[in-house]
Amino acid sequence: MSLTIDQINAVTDKYYRKQIPQQVYEQTVILDRLRKQHRIIAQGGTKIHFPVRYTKLGDAAMIDPNDSRVTVHYETRTAGELDWKYAKVDIVMLWDERIKNRGKAEIIDLMRDKILEGTQDLSEVISTQFHQAYASKGSKDMDGFFTCVQSPSSSTTYAGISSADAAAWVAGLYDTSTTTLALYGTGSLEAGWRACWFIDPPDLMVTTKTLAGIYSSKLYSSERRRPEEGRAGATDLWFLGVPIVVDPQCNSNTWMFLHTGSMYFCVQSGEDFAQEPWEPDPDRYKAIRKLITVVGNFIFDTRKHFGAYTAITS
Question: Model's pTM, two decimal places?
Answer without folding.
Answer: 0.84
